[in-house]
Write a structure and sequence with these properties.
This protein is elongated. Strands 5-2-1-8-9 form a 5-stranded antiparallel β-sheet, with no helix packed on it. A two-stranded antiparallel ribbon has the order 3-4. It starts with 20 loop residues before the first helix and ends in a 44-residue tail after the last strand. The chain is 9% helix and 24% strand. The protein is mostly beta strands and 216 residues long. The protein has 2 helices and 11 strands; from the N terminus they run H-E-E-E-E-E-E-E-E-H-E-E-E. The protein has a single domain, classed as Beta Barrel (OB fold (Dihydrolipoamide Acetyltransferase, E2P)), CATH 2.40.50.
């Protein structure tokens, strides 16, 4: 839900709008268009998730471009609360990369009230096998309360990343990379660091100067 920081009445009306029929019509058109919302840059103020294995959460965002009235006065928008954010996910498969506080990204505004969809979540219609559809939660249209955060657009160079380029794929982490699965490698595995293996032991082995057999 949005909240303006200044409670005074805002208007796009200027003196020339009343001077002629064209001016009055121009004011009506400008006023109608000013209510349309497409996309805008925002800053993350708060986020419900912090990279854990959990359902997609929400963020609180601050729009970074002010509204301007007919007198040229800028009006800051208030914080927009409980904004759903986008995650790359298909079914139970996903990339968990939650937004972080102070991220600057782009948000889009839905043309209808999405609160009912947010509250109901995923609910399958047994007759069709598809999600239930729902009516808008209210009559509001193109309102910043129905914002969805898409992705970061301004940020510093990452220190932890997956990089795709013509040389191949690079996975870099300053801490650790953990893989919880059986791993199959079709190719050459090159180790340029310390390879830590299993610490369990095997019986029936006699130490000496001989060699083991080739790996299979």
């Amino acid at each position: 839900m949005s909240q303006e920081t200044n409670p005074s009445i805002q208007t796009n009306h200027v003196a020339s709008d009343a001077a002629s029929e064209v001016g009055r019509m121009n004011f009506i058109i400008r006023s109608a268009l000013s209510g349309l919302r497409t996309a805008m840059p925002v800053q993350i103020i708060a986020v419900t998730n912090a990279g854990g294995v959990s359902p997609i959460g929400t963020v609180d965002v601050q729009p970074l471009v002010s509204a301007v009235d007919g007198n040229g006065t800028a009006w800051d928008h208030g914080i927009i609360y409980n904004v759903p954010y986008m995650r790359i996910q298909g079914g139970a498969n996903g990339i968990i990369l939650d937004p972080q506080i102070n991220d600057i990204g782009i948000a889009t505004v839905c043309d209808r009230d999405l609160s009912t969809v947010q509250n109901v979540g995923v609910k399958i219609n047994p007759a069709t096998g598809h999600n239930f559809t729902s009516a808008p939660g209210s009559n509001r249209k193109n309102d910043m309360s129905d914002m969805v955060y898409l992705m970061t657009i301004i940020g510093q160079a990452p220190t932890q990343y997956i990089q795709f380029n013509s040389a191949g794929i690079t996975i870099t982490s300053p801490t650790a990379v953990t893989i919880n699965a059986d791993v199959t490698i079709n190719g050459t595995l090159t180790n340029n660091g310390h390879l830590v293996g299993s610490t369990h032991t095997h019986g029936g082995v006699t130490t000496g100067s001989g060699y083991t057999g080739a790996p299979t």
